[in-house]
Design goal:
A 6-stranded parallel beta sheet has the order 4-3-2-1-5-6, with helices on both faces. Strand 3, helix 4 and strand 4 form a beta-alpha-beta unit. The protein starts with a helix and ends with a strand. The chain is globular, with a radius of gyration of 14 Å. Helix 3 packs across helix 4. It has one domain: Rossmann fold. The chain is an alpha/beta fold.
């Protein structure tokens, strides 16, 4: 299978960290679960997470849970650079470490921190996907840049309304 053919069955996630969202984790996970189910019905079997606190980790956890019933599902962890969550709380670091253990593939987008590392990670995810599932609040920032990039690449974007 060519990279283009694989891309047609890949979906990535975009979303904010918990402090930037006015919804509970359970509300967002429920929304993500429904959108992931629809993506699966549309033929998506591989999901890419950017590994940040909040929507990225929650989406990965939903995929991992669904994979228990559907072993055809795959998870790719697009890590901005090795060790990037060093300053997170112990709880978030534990969830991140579990995500990496459960992922089918871990990709370090950069070997080290650099100013544009999150933009590089976002572009990598979009360039390897045919759909973005985005839960974000429309404000300026990295998620908006990711979605604008996806729109420019003709990648389908499913947004929370």
């Amino acid at each position: 299978m060519t990279e283009l053919e694989k891309r047609m069955h890949r979906c990535c996630f975009a979303g904010h960290r918990p402090e930037k969202i006015d919804h509970t984790e359970q509300e967002i996970k429920h929304w993500l679960s429904r959108r992931i189910d629809l993506a699966i019905m549309d033929g998506f079997v591989t999901f890419i997470t950017g590994c940040c606190m909040g929507v990225d980790i929650w989406a990965a956890e939903v995929v991992i849970e669904k994979r228990k019933e559907n072993p055809a599902l795959h998870l790719i962890a697009a890590v901005p650079w090795p060790g990037f969550p060093r300053q997170w709380s112990e709880e978030w670091r534990a969830r991140y470490e579990q995500l990496l253990k459960d992922a089918d593939l871990v990709v370090n987008v950069s070997k080290y921190y650099r100013k544009d590392v999150f933009e590089l990670r976002n572009r990598w995810m979009v360039d390897h996907s045919n759909r973005v599932i985005a839960f974000y609040n429309e404000k300026a920032g990295g998620n908006r840049h990711l979605i604008n990039y996806a729109d420019g690449q003709w990648v389908d974007v499913v947004r929370n309304e």
